[in-house]
Amino acid sequence: MDTRLISRRSALKSALVTTAGLAAPALDGGARAQGKNELVFVGFGGAYQEGQAKALFESFEKETGVKIVQTTGVEIAKLKAQVESKNVEWDIICLPDRLRAPAVKDGLLEKLDYSRFSTADLIKDTVTEFCCGAVTLAMQLCYNPQAFGGGKMPSGWLDFWNTKDFPGRRALYANPAYTLEFALIATGVPKDKLYPLDVEKALKTLEVFKKDGVWWTQFPQVEQILTNKEAVMSPWTRGVTAQLAGKPINVSYDGAAISYEGWVIPKGSKNYDNAMKFIAFATQPKPQAELVKYISFGPSNNKALPLIDANVAKLLPSDPENYKKGFLFSGAYWGDNLAKVTERFNEWRVG
After folding, report:
1. pTM for the full model?
2. How far apart are CA 343 and CA 196, in angstroms?
3. pLDDT, tens digit, for every residue of 134-161?
4. 36 and 181 share one domain
5. Is the same domain home to 66 and 147?
6. How many CA atoms within 13 Å lie on the side-chain side of 41?
7. Strands 250-264 and 327-328: what pairing?
8. 191 and 292 in one domain?
9. Is 328 within 8 Å of 136 (Cβ atoms)?
């Protein structure tokens, strides 16, 4: 995967992709015409999708005989084009809040049929008309402890902006979602008073990193950025996974954005029945606990927690203590404001 970072002048072009999701090289050369006994899944690539394949897709194929064809490059603009042209290539997507809300608003998703399986053990807030919770996750402060020589370690977004006591370059997500929230927390805005976001205040706070920050666009980039010490800290969703894998990366849940990804079916999917069958399978306790072995996101099924190693479970965003330290990311806000805030953010990036 190309991990070269975008320049300031190319930021606008790259950010147009991140407006709707993170593009990545396709695993199957792009989605192909679906067969009756297969599903086309589009994901975000990297370790996360590799884990989904091992924990979910392979087991589902063995149990049902339904083959899952993988591709990458989740883009709401492309999904909208598929739906409007009635030529839908994808069957199943695991969408985060910031993308799910606009997809629902634009009528791009099928309603889910919950008569086919029980949702009694799933986290209630993750079960909606168009989406069934897959994982809980946290966009949190991640840092390389080796960069601080065994001294005091950063613990929150105030430390992220404190370059005097914690010297070194910062890496930042080249997308307004999450980035603006963290900037406002650093200015002292209470976590429960973030929304609606004061966009201009957040952008002013980010000015200090505008020129010298390492701006990334794809989630798998961050591990290399931190381990190579190209930057000493960054917001990221996969820090716990890296830490458990023995990488020199630590995490803090203070001020973390807690959200969830959920299974959705594109409007007009040619394989609705098999997609529903997959969602029923993927939300069971055993597959969810298995996924944690590859990517340390929290399960949406409460009965999966006892199946997870206790030393791992305490590091997940679903742990009560971790959850209290963060804030609930507002997919509703971003559903209504993603386009206009992203346009303003992109203007600021190249200005």
Report:
1. 0.72
2. 17
3. 999 999 999 999 999 878 999 999 999 9
4. no
5. no
6. 26
7. parallel
8. no
9. no
- Give the whole-angstrom CA distance, residue 246 versus residue 4: 24
Q: Is pLDDT larger for residue 199 or for residue 314?
A: 199
- Residue 2 placed within a domain: no
Nearest CA to 52 out of 322, 287, 351 is that of 287
Task: Name the pLDDT band for 28 (thresholds 50, 70, 90).
Answer: very low
In the numeric block, which tokens belong to residue 216? 């990334």
**139 has which bridge partners?**
257
Residue 117: which domain range? 11-136+261-306
Q: Please tell me the distance from the alpha carbon of residue 96 to that of residue 349, in angstroms, as a whole number.
A: 24
**C-alpha to C-alpha distance for 160 and 343, rounded to whole angstroms:** 25
Task: Please return the burial class of 320, using the count of CB atoms within 10 Å of its CB with bins 0-12, 13-18 and 19+.
Answer: exposed
In a domain, 86, yes or no: yes
Q: Tell whether 300 and 198 lie within a shared domain.
A: no
Residues 213 and 160: beta-carbon distance below 8 Å: no
Length of the chain: 351
The SS3 assignment for 281 reads: helix
The CATH number of residue 58's host domain is 3.40.190.10
In the numeric block, which tokens belong to residue 139? 């966009």
Would you say the C-alpha torsion 308, 44, 130, 179 has a positive or negative sign?
A: positive
- 318 domain residue, yes or no: no
Q: Which two tokens stand for residue 345?
A: 């953010």
Do 267 and 253 reside in the same domain of the chain?
Answer: no
